Amino acid sequence: MSDMTPAIELKQVTARYHTKPVLQDVSLAIEAGDMVGVLGPNGAGKSTLFAVLSGLLPPASGSAQLFGTDLHRIPPRERARLIAVVPQDLDIPVPYTVEEVVMMGRTASLGRFSSPTAADHQSVERALVYTDVADIRRSPLNELSGGERQRAIVAMALAQEPRIILMDEATSHLDINHRLEIMQLVERLNRDNGVTVLMISHDLQIAAEFSRRLIVLDHGRLVADGPPAEVLTEDTLRRVYHCDVQVHQDPHSGGLSILAAPRLPAPNMGKGIHIHVVGGGGCGEPFLRRLVLCGYTVTCGVLNRGDLDAEVAEALGIEAVLEQPFSAIGPEAIRKSHEMALTARAVVLSPVPFGTGNLANLELLEAARNAGRPVFMAQGIEERDYTPGRSAVARVRALASCGAEYYRDSTDLLARLPSVGQA
Amino acid sequence: MIYFIKDHRLSPSAAFRLVLALTPVILGLCVFMGPSGIGLPDPWSQREILILRITRVLTGFIIGGALSCAGVVFQAVLRNPLAEPYILGVSSGAGLGASLAILTGLAAAGAFILPLSAFIMAVLTLLIVHLLSNRGGGPSLYGLILSGVIVSSICSSILMFMISAASLEGMHSVLWWMLGDLEVTSYALLMISGVIVLAGTAGVWLMSRELNALTLGHTMAHHLGIRVKAALVAALLLATLVAATAVSVAGLIGFVGLIVPHIMRNLVGADHRRLVPAATVGGGAFLAICDAIARTIMPVEIPVGVVTALIGGPFFLYLLKRRRTPGWIE
To answer: Which A residues 32-71 touch B at CB under 8 Å?
Structure first.
């Protein structure tokens, strides 16, 4: 086997659970001996990627190879010697001792008719010492603290003597001290033994510090790949995690420090400020929730009774103007919502699709704009206009030309809205 | 190497040797007990009684070992402390199969018919339970247990129906068999079931590696290099074979498959390489003792299932109460 063969190679892998695709067209090559962090928000496909790499989930299309061999052609015991997985936590219902669990790392090499060999014992011994659990080897695993237990589970993976280790959020239950300890242990394995390491982590700081390469998944696709300093940019992180972060590079060490959401809106930035939201169909939910969390006084309408947004409004205690289910907005509802919109400090249009039934809601925005109120509209009306003649697009554009602002997402909206500090 | 010993409990390997050494002694003592009094029957004048007692103790040993070994497998594979041959409907299915064989008169055709029909029905029940609980990817644990309990009670109802519809004579023999007793009706049946149980438990023992890994969860077992599906099927089939054989010989005897594995896990540890043999011989010894008590303690013989529950239940509760260490049940 040449040195050029990558430890892991995925070619256009698509994987799905049932029919729902969770990895789409992912191509990836990881060199032997690399240390790679896998980032992405919840549901991005990180765990699915690991399920494919460990042979749990065969790809629906594309190919997955370990050291140049197709994964599905590697027999299970052979595979266990190539790749080990350290899970986030292991729920072990029986009182196995540390030593017994670590010996289970040797499962693939134990004979059916023979006891563990000297080589097995030696490997277990090394793993016990390496992870500093040798002195608690006789303790039942489920009596240990979280840090000790996770070290024992890492020891089980080490006893497999794998060439690749997948760490699936392996340190996320641990406190910062044990987190660093486990990471240093893995780093040492990577450095001394050339073990290839892939780790899923939600701790960007640790990922940046210990990885030589970062890959970022979002909605099942690979969206960024490269050295930490290139991948961990404010722009990428905002795009993927939908929240603001600040990234600083230390000029001396070159280390990155990431501050999550330093510009998160203050909880009372909207105290006493009245905002009227035009929503519908559930698309207003994140706006309503975040506005209420920031202390704004929110009104909403016109909505149809039974609409998702109407339910959200009721749950959040938001006053809303309601129309009969599945019927067009009538004059009475328009009159009431006009009152609301004109007493509000600003009017917000959520990304609601328009049809002839709710087109009347645009009148609110026009009235508010004419009265000199700030109006904020979600981008992309072109994709949400289902009216004949696309009149909603025309009216929204007209509003924009007389001073209404577009916003990108709820974070962007909160930055634009009037707040207590400004007033 | 010197290890610091925290408490003065027996080390697992010492406990394992003790269990293996004590079992023949216990079996020997059981021969001394019987309805005709405590003491060894005279080998010459009371030859019949002696042979009867020895076969009785041997039957208890085989049945108890089979039930306990099956319990170990079900608990490991289902990762559930309450698992035993009853939980997946295996026992009731086997009971139904055996009753069918008795009522139709097929059982008289050959000694192997009874265990065979019990095994076939038990596997059928297991299959139905598996299919019921299978949603998409694989069966969920809770699904398995829930459908097992339900299928089990359906089997019991069918059994009750068959008994009530049967002739007086058939009803008598089925009821007698169901109550669970170790009276040996045929040496051929005992021989056949002994061979099946020996082979089955040996097979389970050889799967210790897989059972250990499966206890860590099916995903982790996969990562450790186990063919999870194949191992599950093999382990469940072996356990079903052994449990069905026990049921076909001795009827429905509860509690052995539940408590003996627990006690042994406390003594020799959870590693199946030790647990399987320890639980098997321990279960055998336990049932032999219970049967000896059932024969001796009252002027009339009481069903051995009553004794296993009366001894096992309180003892089990004591264990739960006494244990400070978190294990199966916290």
So the answer is: 54-56
Q: CA B138, B143, B148 angle in degrees (round to 5)?
A: 115
- pLDDT-derived band at B24, boundaries 50, 70, 90: very high
Tokens of B103: 């009522």
**Per-residue model confidence (pLDDT) at position B319:** 67
pLDDT greater than 70 at residue B324: no
Pairwise CA distance, residues B312 & B257, whole Å: 11
Confidence band (pLDDT; 50, 70, 90) for B326? Answer: very low
* Interface ipTM > 0.85: no
Rounded to 5°, the CA angle A310-A312-A318 comes to 80
pLDDT of residue B308: 87
Q: Which residues of B touch A115 (CB under 8 A)?
A: 273
Please tell me the least confidently modeled range out of B10-19, B35-44, B207-216: B35-44
Strand partners, B23: none
Cβ contacts of B220 on chain A, cutoff 8 Å: 85, 87, 90
Q: CA-to-CA distance for A278 and A359, rounded, in angstroms?
A: 11
pLDDT band at B195 (very low <50, low <70, confident <90, very high): very high
Backbone torsions φ then ψ of A98, nearest 5 degrees: -55, -45
Q: How far, rounded to the nearest angstrom, does the alpha carbon of residue A67 sit from its chain's CA centroid?
A: 29
CB nearest B225 (choices: A18, A80, A96): A80
- How far apart, in Å, are the Cα atoms of B56 and each of A284, B27, B48, B50, B220? 76, 10, 12, 10, 43
Which portions of chain A are predicted below pLDDT 50?
1-2, 423
Residue of A94, A122, A124 to mutate when probing chain B, most B C-beta within 10 A: A94
CA distances, A199 to each of A127, A168, A228, A267, B251 (Å): 20, 6, 14, 34, 54
Check B215 against A81: CB less than 8 A apart.
no
Q: What does the alpha-carbon distance between residue A183 and residue A189 come to, in Å, rounded to a whole number?
A: 10
Q: Which of residues 80-99 of A touch B (CB under 8 A)?
A: 80-81, 83-85, 87, 90-97
Q: Are B132 and B151 in contact (CB under 8 A)?
A: yes
- Spatial contact of A201 and A169, defined as CB atoms under 8 Å apart: yes
Segment B223-247 shows an average pLDDT of 92
**CA–CA distance, A232 with B196 (Å, rounded to integer):** 64
- pLDDT at residue B7 above 70? no
Asked whether the predicted pLDDT for residue B18 surpasses 50, the reply is yes
| Closest of B180, B258, B194, B196 to residue B61, by C-alpha | B194
CB contact under 8 Å between A100 and B216, yes or no, is no
Using alpha carbons, list the distances in angstroms from residue B75 to A86, A224, B62: 24, 45, 20
